[in-house]
Amino acid sequence: MWFFARDPVRDFPFELIPEPPEGGLPGPWALHRGRKKATGSPVSIFVYDVKPGAEEQTQVAKAAFKRFKTLRHPNILAYIDGLETEKCLHVVTEAVTPLGIYLKARVEAGGLKELEISWGLHQIVKALSFLVNDCSLIHNNVCMAAVFVDRAGEWKLGGLDYMYSAQGNGGGPPRKGIPELEQYDPPELADSSGRVVREKWSADMWRLGCLIWEVFNGPLPRAAALRNPGKIPKTLVPHYCELVGANPKVRPNPARFLQNCRAPGGFMSNRFVETNLFLEEIQIKEPAEKQKFFQELSKSLDAFPEDFCRHKVLPQLLTAFEFGNAGAVVLTPLFKVGKFLSAEEYQQKIIPVVVKMFSSTDRAMRIRLLQQMEQFIQYLDEPTVNTQIFPHVVHGFLDTNPAIREQTVKSMLLLAPKLNEANLNVELMKHFARLQAKDEQGPIRCNTTVCLGKIGSYLSASTRHRVLTSAFSRATRDPFAPSRVAGVLGFAATHNLYSMNDCAQKILPVLCGLTVDPEKSVRDQAFKAIRSFLSKLESVSEDPTQLEEVEKDVHAASSPGMGGAAASWAGWAVTGVSSLTSKLIRSHPTTAPTETNIPQRPTPEGVPAPAPTPVPATPTTSGHWETQEEDKDTAEDSSTADRWDDEDWGSLEAESVLAQQDDWSTGGQVSRASQVSNSDHKSSKSPESDWSSWEAEGSWEQGWQEPSSQEPPPDGTRLASEYNWGGPESSDKGDPFATLSARPSTQPRPDSWGEDNWEGLETDSRQVKAELARKKREERRREMEAKRAERKVAKGPMKLGARKLD
User: Fold this and answer.
1) Which of 65, 253, 455, 535 is the most exposed place for a label (fewest CB within 10 A)?
2) How far apart are CA 453 and CA 472, in angstroms?
3) CA R_g for the chain
4) How far, in Å, are 102, 462, 537 from residue 58 at the CA level?
5) How far, in Å, CA of 335 to CA of 562, rounded?
6) Quick one: CA torsion of 194, 196, 199, 205, rounded to 10 degrees?
7) What are the two backbone dihedrals, phi and then psi, of residue 21, each rounded to the nearest 5 degrees?
8) Residues 705 and 759 sit within 8 Å (Cβ to Cβ)
9) In the chain, which stretches have pLDDT less than 70?
10) What is the pLDDT of residue 675?
């Protein structure tokens, strides 16, 4: 039987990357990049090859190996593993780069900021303070070659080869024998008489002064160069001079040096150092302190190094959310740091947290996620959006807080391209139908119309045909003037999605009705849209061969490329109007109903005018739309962001939507029309009960249908409900024919814009039958109760087989 000796190097769990060692290390060690065999995680491996005749160097290397294993401090190079054989020594540490190479790379990339240097020096001085004051050890090798930088930009103290005890237990300092290292020795070491009085830290503080000089001025040519501070910052020069003074007795202790530099106005008194110190102690901070810290962190991240944000701030943010209950305050800095990550890192670190956040019931968390969705939507894949994000987001449509509903509508602009057929064409349209018809906030109804126009190109052909014309027509009857404008612009933005028949028979009649709208802004946009559609119809009439080209998108499958104008139209409604809603919420948490006068259109002769009904008014500021219209011309000239001509509208004419957009964006006045609301909005039901009533009225598919064309009966014709069918004149029973026919009016009742002949807001034939059956059951129930009452008051008991006699 043969036994083979095991190779310790081959069995070592770490391996060297086959490339030349990194330079900049005068001494016995060579620094190599390496990785862990099992995971591939990067490490640094210090290698010392044992050579014959170099026993003194070997002893120094073995002493350093021992120090690495026993010394643990955040600012000292972290030991991971080691290997000691007769031929070599391997010390595995965290992945680091020598400071000299790091500084050179940063200079080539644009230079190193003083903030980074201040924190780096703070860490080295803190490590020296730990060695001297806590361990009574003299490092004896502080220089550029003994400092390393990890991937987060943290400076670590290494080079432990020549360390010795300050108490003299292990003898004096070991001899270096390397000129590159001996040039950093203080001048008092050359005096062998021993008459110079010095502290145990004096030599290391002199070497710290040499390190500071080299960081700002480059390699130290000779000791005499220390007299000229060179590029050392003025706030650091007084403390630097103390370090390189000829009298070793006056050189400060490392702890005092830190205290002096951290004084107000000192070199290490800045936001970056304070942030790092807080992160080091974040586990013992109070929750209120953490909240304040994360709230202020976003303002400072732009000035911090990218590597620091990625590798130090980000882990703390993730930990604070996962285990610290930090809540919504971590979102803003989290997404700001996420910009520094690659797509793969973002998927691994940020997306799992975002998905988990969407299931939170915290309203502050939900609204911040919706507001900042633009920053992470590109990293979400479609299955994640449809199965883990959208089911939670849609709850916002039913939220009692208007700000949540508004942000949910706006978020659909980003989610729509990633939604599947069922979520986009069925589920989302349900909620949009409800919001547009029944939401009590005019700006939210307006934004729903705007959002529908923007995502129209993503809808299927059947859904577009069923929904768009009906939805935009309904918007033109909204008492909130901006909603009516949005309806007109919706038609214009999606003009390529309608057939010529629809343009002539369904769209133009609706637009013509708006030419007598009380608001001039609505009339202006209606005239422009009418001219555009007429021009389109006229061109097809002149050349019928253009019909196929004009209608090419009508029956095409959903595609983001169709309707390019729809992707950028009416940006004012999602920015300016949305800010209005937020102001209403903040300044008027509850809305008290007040009576307002709505401009009414004349009713047909013979039809009694409906009595005005008080409706809840949207809270307003001191001004009204009448005062704003005086400045309309000036606003139109100065506004450039909201002009139709600036957008890609194809063959349609365009210009700005509302002159009041600037007022909305800056907290301006709310129009008189914004005070008007649907009479349904007075309902005190919860959103859940509203949704139930919406389902009872009819399905969402019916809610979007076009109006039914119904001829009015000839004059003098009496309705079925006006006849007396043989019952008593004062009967309290409802007329079963009253709901079957009603004289249509040419204009909707001003207090119920949604209760006209749009099928989504009237009862269909099935509902009418159900109502009749219900009334019959009610009548039958009353008859049975009357009979039972008669039997109770009858005299004497009723016996089986007996005949009642008078």
Assistant:
1) 535
2) 9
3) 40
4) 29, 82, 94
5) 32
6) -110
7) -65, 155
8) yes
9) 1-8, 23-27, 169-172, 177, 192-197, 324-325, 557-768, 794-806
10) 38
